[in-house]
Amino acid sequence: MAALTRVSGSVGLISLLNPPVNALSAAVRQGIVDTVRRAVSDPQVKSVVICGQNGVFCGGADIKEFGGHMSGPPLVPIFNTIEAADKPVVAAIEGSALGGGLELALACHYRITQSKARLGLPEVSLGLLPAAGGTQRLPRLIGVPAALDLITTGRHLTGAEALKLGIVDQVTDQNTVEAAVKFALSIPSGCNICRLHLSERPGVMQRVKKSAHGAIAPVACVQAVQAAATLPFTQGMQREQELMATLFGSGQARALQYCFFSQRVVSKWSSPSGSRWDTSKPKPVTKVGVIGLGTMGRGITVALALAGLSVVAVETQQQQMMAAQHAVSGMLERTARRRGVSLVGDQIRYSVELEAVADVELVIEAVFEDMALKEKLFKQLSTLCKADTLLCSNTSSLDIDHLASQTHSPQLVVGMHFFAPAHVMKLLEVVYGPRSAPQAVATAMELGKRMGKVSVAVGNCSGFVGNRMLMPYVEEASFLVEEGASPEIVDRALEEFGFPMGVFRMSDLSGLDVGWKVRKARGLVEPGQMSRVRQGRRYSPLGDLLCEQGRFGQKTGRGWYLYDSAGSREAQPDPWLQSFLEEYRARQGLVSRRIDSQEVLERCLYALINEGFNILQEGIAAGPEDIDMIYVFGYGFPRHRGGPMFYASQVGLAQVLQRLEHYQQLHPDIPHLRPSSLLRRLVSSGSPRIQRWREIIRMPHSSL
Ligand code: NAD
């Protein structure tokens, strides 16, 4: 698992060998202990180089060991031994040095890296901290501010950036191991790790706490780095261990590790018809057509171009096309600069002729949300595109199967539902209809992956998975306001839970008119009417009444909140709204009552979760991981809570069921509070672990 050879006469070369990423498994750790001991005691060895086999230095801890009992030698004493060696030790970093891998490199006296290698301490994203000395050695090497940034965000660096920060001593484009051996031969004698003056930065803790939205790991990371700045090394190491012990057993670490694995689970998609990721081969795609260059089409074009695809972008008129071209160029440049990628010129061709997409392999339609317009477009595309071109729609709510029925080849139609801004947001819902070919699903999933998205395959239904679950959540928030809460009370509870924005601030940001239009299309809006029952169920006309007053949210300077001016982002409570609500309640005969944050969370979240169970029951999502990844990557559900379904499993399914029953008794006219039969089945099966839910879902059951 680690081999020692002698090269160039006096250099002991230790190679880690544990494909694919040389993870620090028990055997690798033992291998390091043995080879370091031999190298240090061999008089012919004057210096040591540590590298990884197969072009990768070390990907860090073996995450498979997390759940079980750790055996083998622990990392901290191994790294201390390396650091204390009286012969210079050089890390030769190729591929990646992540987590424990970078901590190993930090314990070495020098680091030589390949310019393209990726370095980072991503532990915080798993709810942990770098607990093998990373929080103590990195600030001593590069200072507190830079170390805090890397440790609290977990972001990756390239070798070139690492050189700028002082993490590594040399960057090479040549053979890294050879460069490291040459470097080792040039070291005269002895060595010392660089110790910089460390000082704490005031205000860091408040800043990190604010952006952590309740996550505890970033806060613990700051505490550990504070210890590095104020305590001697040994005491700092002790503090690091204590902080790690609290994080290790926490529910947040479990939730974050669940997210880590779930991202892989959702890429292994399956549908009720039996098509699967491993039996469906994606079609190669190099050229994509985007129709409609509004908010979404622009972002999609940028994301495609950044992924290296050539794009044919189509608008209706010259003027719209020019405006879009200008906007796309700016977005593309800014994003490429931020990500440090270089662009290949002329990747995007603009046109006002639909025929321009005649030779593409896949089309993504992003025109107005209007079924008649999309029907016409799909008919045209089906005639003018090549016979095997995939036709995809970015619709947020329209029936994919109906769109497919407009074409000659319904099997080639799928939904590709991006989220705004489409070049930034990580989520892509790939919506298959009953007639979609497995290859069409596989191709859309693969294209999403190439665009850097977390692609989740879901079935066709109104709102698909994300927006369908959002409906009861948003409705419940309005009902709470009718009953006595204010938008501030509801939003505060949800933000303290960990959402970056509560329902009402979010709704003001995206525009109240968006939902108004959807409700109008569903025949729910009755202008000027206050009735609270529509289509046989409870309805809150509050959002419609605000829209009738021209209150569309941030863009009009008022909505659920008041803003300084149209377009301003600073939400303030609006006294007008307060008196409007009082008058509304009085006219409805509603007696306002005090609503606490527990009720806000239970009613909004359990309604959302309950719809998630209905979706699982219907097979629209294949498993709870699919729903959770949709919510974490598309809807701001706090990652450290794992997603709505994981959160339900942490709360306890019996508890969720009991509270839903309680609220349903109080509000029998709200159908989405009626507990899902799958939730009942899971509870009566003893509330199994979330990883076992799929078995219960598949089990035949009586529908009584
Ligand atoms: P938008 O109004 O910003 O843009 C639509 C664009 O399509 C306009 O520029 C218009 O000129 C163009 N267009 C209309 N008819 C066309 C035609 N026949 N040929 C070429 N171009 C045409 O709309 P948007 O917000 O980008 O939404 C587009 C689609 O994406 C809708 O189906 C919407 O439901 C969906 N969607 C929107 C969001 C969002 O947050 N805005 C999120 C996910 C999905």
From TrEMBL:
Question: What are the EC numbers?
Answer: 1.1.1.35, 4.2.1.17, 5.3.3.8
Query: 3-hydroxyacyl-CoA dehydrogenase C-terminal domain: from which residue to which, for each copy?
Result: 463-563, 600-687
Claim: Transmembrane helix is one of the keywords in the record: no
Residue ranges of coiled coil = none
User: Taking the first listed entry, what is the main subcellular location of this protein, grouped into a coarse class?
Assistant: other
Q: Which GO terms describe its cellular component?
A: peroxisome
User: What reaction does this catalyse?
Assistant: (3S)-hydroxyhexadecanedioyl-CoA + NAD(+) = 3-oxohexadecanedioyl-CoA + NADH + H(+); (3S)-hydroxyhexadecanoyl-CoA + NAD(+) = 3-oxohexadecanoyl-CoA + NADH + H(+); (3Z)-hexenoyl-CoA = (2E)-hexenoyl-CoA; (3E)-hexenoyl-CoA = (2E)-hexenoyl-CoA
Pfam families associated with the record = 3HCDH, 3HCDH_N, ECH_1
Give GO terms for biological process: fatty acid beta-oxidation
Under the subunit heading, UniProt states: Monomer.
* Family named by the database record: Belongs to the enoyl-CoA hydratase/isomerase family. In the C-terminal section; belongs to the 3-hydroxyacyl-CoA dehydrogenase family.
Name of the molecule in the record: Peroxisomal bifunctional enzyme
Protein source organism: Periophthalmus magnuspinnatus
